[in-house]
Write a structure and sequence with these properties.
6 strands, 9 helices, globular, Diaminopimelate Epimerase, Chain A, domain 1, 2 domains
Amino acid sequence: MEITSATAELVFRLLMQMNIELDAEIADAVFAGISTDTGSFQFSNVTAETHEIVAQLYAYRNDFAVLSKQLHCEKSYDQMKMYGAAASVLKVLDNGRIGWVLLDHATIQKYGGDINITDDIANIGMNTLGIMVAATIKEITPGQYRISLRSRSPFDIDVSVIAKRYGGGGHKRAAGLTFAGDLMEIQNALIDLVAGSIDR
């Protein structure tokens, strides 16, 4: 199976095959898609072709620095407060191998109520030294949760296994699900997954 790091890579290939003339606006859109899907080129799904495509985009836009900052650095006041709240409740489980962030419904409402502005809070766990797997749980309504799962390379931990078990989806390094029930069930599933992957 051919590895593609981002949907935008497929879009770029299609544009080339259709002989569509690119411009700065299209280049921005393709760059944004690749940059977000690869975690600003930090994820293990990045390939040589990823960089080759971006290099070609520079023919239409000679500086992507401003766009990169807008995508990955600039946050609204509510986003920054939400980040602070998430960092303050970060827990480490399983001898430091699992990061666990739970944002309850009241906290999300306190900072605007938009769960979509917190999509990259999963990085708080993954940016913590020693953590192999991170779970970010957002309580959408009381008792119902949206859960993002991340795993760190080079560890061979497929978080999509858990997501798919509960009707979610994703891939090996990033997956998600919606869950209603006792969060200890998810916590124990993560501990078992890590143990099965690392301790075998």
